[in-house]
Amino acid sequence: MNPIRVDAAIVEPVTLADMRAHLRLDPDITAEDGLVESLIASARAMVELATRRVLAPGRYRVMLTAWPRDGFVPLPLSPLVALASAGSVDAAGTVTAFDSGLVRLAPDTMEAPGLVVSPALPALDRAAAFIEVDAGYGGAGPPVPPALVQAIRLLAAHGFENRGDLPVTFPPMVEALIAPHRRMRL
């Protein structure tokens, strides 16, 4: 089960204006704005991958063909912000919403994000569970930690100075900024 992002717009945690100021670019010359925007997106993706956290708010869809025995559906989306909708979809594509409270966010939405599902939910014999959640820093979620914003700036600046060649490993300063925010795997 892999969550799929269903909203198209991504609001980057570092704006173009902020990054231009960080790079000390002339405000009248905008020829490299496209490059700067792509470097911001690349740097955000690298920090997201390293920390296992979502740094741009978004809506994600999860499909399940069976309920977990322990009633917990772990999600690789931290921070988990809200349950947008939950229901089942049959073979004909008809969506039936679940009653409120049968699917809810787990108590720890940052370090152990997931869903708690009630044993009262109907079996998914000829249907699939169709769940949408909102996740990510910014928007309705918590603000992006300043250290992660600075890590994005530093990585994007490195890419700008080296014309798109982002590092294979993080520079020590970036590593120090993201280390406290990493979600660990057990």
Outline of the structure:
The chain is an alpha+beta fold and 186 residues long. The chain is built from four helices and eight strands; from the N terminus they run βααβββββββαα.
Please, could you describe this protein's structure?
This protein is of the alpha+beta class and 186 residues long. Helix content is 27%, strand content 23%. It has two domains: 81 residues; 78 residues, no CATH class. It has four helices and eight strands, in the order E-H-H-E-E-E-E-E-E-E-H-H. Strand 6 and strand 7 form a beta hairpin.
Key features of this structure:
alpha+beta, 3-stranded antiparallel sheet, 186 residues, elongated, 23% strand, 2 domains, 5-stranded antiparallel sheet
Strand order of the largest sheet: 1-2-8-4-5
Structural class: alpha+beta
Mean of pLDDT: 92
Tell me the β content: 15-25%
Strand tally: 8
Order of secondary-structure elements:
EHHEEEEEEEHH
Spatial extent as radius of gyration: 19 Å
| Apparent shape | elongated
Query: How large is the count of helical segments?
Result: 4
**Low-pLDDT ranges:** none
Chain-wise SSE layout:
Elements: E1 4-5, H1 16-23, H2 33-51, E2 58-64, E3 72-74, E4 80-90, E5 95-97, E6 103-105, E7 114-117, E8 127-135, H3 146-161, H4 172-178
Antiparallel strand pairs: 1-2, 2-8, 3-7, 4-5, 4-8, 6-7
